[in-house]
Amino acid sequence: MRLARSVCFAICLASAAFLLPLHTSADDISEHARALHFSSIVLDTHDDTTQRFLSNSFDIGKRNADGHIDIPRMREGGMNAIFFSIWIDGKIMGPAAVEKALDQIDLVRENIQKYPNDMVLARTADEVRQAHAQGKIAALMGVEGGHMIGNDIHVLRIFADLGVRYMTLTHFYNDEWADSSTAKPEHNGLTDFGKEVVREMNRQGVLVDISHVSDKTFYDALAVSQAPLIASHSSCRALCDHVRDMSDDMIKALAAKGGVIQINYEKSFIDQAYKDASDKARGNVTAMFDALAKECNKDDSCLSKKMNDEEKKLTAEGKLPHVSWERVVDHIDHAVKLVGADHVGLGSDFDGATMPEGLEDASKLPKITEALLRKGYSDEDIRKILGGNTLRIMEQAERVSRAMQAQQ
Q1: Would residue 75 count as lying in a domain?
Q2: What average pLDDT does the segment 259-265 reach?
Q3: What SS3 class is residue 205?
Q4: 229, 217 in Cβ contact below 8 A?
Q5: Residues 340, 381: Cα–Cα separation, whole Å
Q6: pLDDT at position 290 over 70
Q7: How far is Cα 285 from Cα 283, in angstroms, rounded to an integer?
Q8: Under a CB-based contact definition with an 8 Å cutoff, are residues 207 and 166 in contact?
Q9: What is the CATH number of the domain that holds 45?
């Protein structure tokens, strides 16, 4: 097993004014939108780029012809804070799951260390702001699936010590203590141990992420958690009836406790016609995932490529409709109208999903700022959506953690 090593970055306060890109590939961006976007903290709460680190051919420091994320395209699109997802197949549990998760945590930290002039590991909202002031990309980590703690709460503490700042309670399958949105219920939401996991996440300052969980698990976690929750990469069920999206009632309940829904860009989560056609062509999301996982023979790094290749093939055959990037803006707007601009953020699912046309990679992100301005959003509200809301909820989780640890 690769042992996760400590990575230390010196903060150089005397250097590095914020770096503005010379150009952006996003078309038709006003000077107002450009200035607003590139002066904001643009924080994406879910990127599966970690899987690409498993391949020796991928270099995050160079512009790549495929995929969605690398440092040049992040710079070009103004993305200056990113949660790298730690993900393994949800059917792997126990010590093997823990080992694989630690391997990926180590890979993220290695890649940050490889490019210290561009990226810095961030654990707190203040550290994200410090990175931004230095012109660096704040790199954070989220564990995508509670199965990776190996049913051992001590592992959760280890993850927190290594820099993990959120954990998604499940992935596509149920784990030992929580039900997933895409599996047959086994636990009626959270088990007693699952509720203890949520309390320990609060204690460690690890955000509780309810993307992927069943509706009952969501409400159980909401009732137990002392800190607000996030949906790190989910969209709105009212616009696209997908179990991975959140109903209006769920979004309202999330916001009432101070939480944030970070909108996912995946085509089947944002467009009903595409979702229906995709289900018809290749089965529901779990069936599709199972088939591709089998084809990849447990090679995690090939799953995203297989998904994109199949999507392109089906689209070329006319079996899948085209989906515009503007559907992402529709979901942002729906959530804002429902609960206000304080409770919406961005969780693209880059490098782990099929992107809509016009939002093919991180370089296109200024389009979102331009679109929100055209809808009449204020600069302040746009800054919140781009990243400010996620920083606020991180600060709230940090306060809860300090209070709980002071009581021990």
Answers
A1: yes
A2: 98
A3: coil
A4: no
A5: 9
A6: yes
A7: 7
A8: yes
A9: 3.20.20.140
Please state the domain count of the chain.
1
Evaluate whether residue 307 is within a structural domain. Answer: no
What is the full DSSP assignment across 145-163? -GGGGTT-HHHHHHHHHTT
Structure-block tokens of residue 45: 């709460």
Does 138 or 28 have the greater pLDDT score?
A: 138
Angstrom distances, CA of residue 376 to CA of 235, 254, 290: 21, 25, 43
Would 10 be classed as within a structural domain? no
- Determine the pLDDT at residue 159: 98
What's the confidence (pLDDT) of residue 56? 86
pLDDT at 284: 72
Average pLDDT of the residues of the chain: 91
Q: How far apart, in whole angstroms, are the C-alpha atoms of residue 9 and residue 203?
A: 26
Q: Hey, what are 248's tokens?
A: 């209006």
Instruction: Name the β-bridge partners of 178.
Output: 190
Please classify residue 327 by burial: count the beta carbons closer than 10 Å to its beta carbon, then call 0-12 exposed, 13-18 middle and 19+ buried. Answer: buried
77: left (phi over 0), alpha (psi -120 to 50) or beta: alpha
Spatial neighbors of 215 by CB under 8 A, at least 6 apart, are: 181, 247, 250
Q: What's the rounded Cα separation, in Å, for the pair 382 and 42? A: 10
Spatial contact of 144 and 86, defined as CB atoms under 8 Å apart: yes
Does residue 221 have a pLDDT over 50? yes
* Other Cβ atoms closer than 10 A to 14: 5
Whether the per-residue pLDDT at 102 is higher than 60: the answer is yes
Q: How many CB atoms lie within 10 A of CB 284?
A: 14
Which of these, 236, 396, 198, lies nearest to 331 by C-alpha position?
A: 236
- The span from the CA of 68 to the CA of 108, in Å, is 17
Task: Give the range of the structural domain holding residue 154, as residue numbers without chain letter.
Answer: 31-273+324-406
pLDDT at 312: 78
Q: Report the chain's C-alpha Rg in angstroms.
A: 19
382 part of a folded domain: yes
